[in-house]
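FORM 7B: Structural annotation worksheet

SECTION A. Query
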Amino acid sequence: MDILKCLLIHGMIIKGDAEGDHYGPIAVGAPDERSANECRKLGGRVAELANKLFG
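SECTION B. Predicted structure
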């Protein structure tokens, strides 16, 4: 929670996700198809949020 507080103090936006992996998209070494798919979904959610905020 302290890390989240620091991000908020500096004006950053935190995008949570109830689905997917606990720590978000992650891969060790070359990403497999599952990791790549999680990254694409995260990118879509961030783009949707940016569109809501600034679009």
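SECTION C. Observations
The CA atoms of residues 4 and 14 lie 8 Å apart. Residues 33-54 form the longest helix (22 residues).

SECTION D. Sign-off
Analyst initials: ____
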